[in-house]
Amino acid sequence: MSTFRELVETRSRPLVTAEFPAIDGGDLGTIQAKLDPILPYVDAINATDNPAAHAHASNTAIAIALKTLGADPIMQVVCRDKNRLAQQADVVGAALFGVTNVCALTGDDVTAGDEPQARRVFDLDGPQLIKVIDGLREGRYLSGRKLDPPPDLFVGAVENPFAPPQHYRVERARIKSDAGARFLQLQIGYEPDRLEDFVRGCVENGVAARTALIPSICLTKSAKALDFMHDKVPGIVIPEPLRARVKSAADVPEESYQVALELARHALTVPGVAGIHVTDFRHDGSLARLVTDLGLRGASAAA
User: Fold this and answer.
1) Which residues contact 269 (CB under 8 A, 6 or more apart)?
2) How many domains does the chain have?
3) 79: nearest Cα among 139, 26, 36, 129
4) What is the rounded average pLDDT of the residues 22-46?
5) For residue 286, what pLDDT band results from cuts at 50, 70 and 90?
6) Is the pTM of this model over 0.85?
7) What is the domain extent for residue 53?
8) Residues 6+ positions from 302 with CB-CB distance below 8 Å
């Protein structure tokens, strides 16, 4: 059993996951160099699937490489780019190499990327993809054909607690949990009260008891990055007072870090939260600093 899965199932301590940087070229050494600064501080690492609708080295290849190099990968699978045949093939193929954590998500629209003329697939939506992957875990392809031996998959998904209407997002979390998601990595957010409301709803409807809720914390170093997310990324609202606070700071990178630290500390105090997921746009050692300042230790650091 992976350390990540064990922590989700036992809730023995707050867990930490993080996004692995997108890779465009190189070899295992390239991946190792980017992995080394992260690995001691996390319990699992996301192998992203063409994030922001930009083509990169495949999710399956990166997940297998991470596993080979000693990490516990979470392989993302998006609905945007592939049909159900390719999605099932990727999941089963990665499982042959021990990649068993899988996170299903819709994926950013192609208009967010650098090839907006690309065709959208969306053969399945998010909850349908979760159900298909859970079926693989149970030993059958979507067609009903037997899969023997079944891969010991651990299925998760994403959700946005901050997008209105709030009750719909709580209901979406329930639908995904019912479909088989055992963890939900939540969208980046800067409105603590909305996170509290969402998690409270998931506690009340039973989702938090069976599905780990993992809020995302974004490490940035500039006010420009906050403005970009607020203006350009659907579903992310960053209150003006917070952006003004960073812009007016004597040390903008440090103030940006302090914002992330405050949001992480708050998230970990919310009843029903299982840990945090870190998206690092700084790449300057801030992830290690954050985990240390929070008093958390990833699987490798604790070993």
Assistant:
1) none
2) 1
3) 129
4) 97
5) very high
6) yes
7) 3-302
8) none
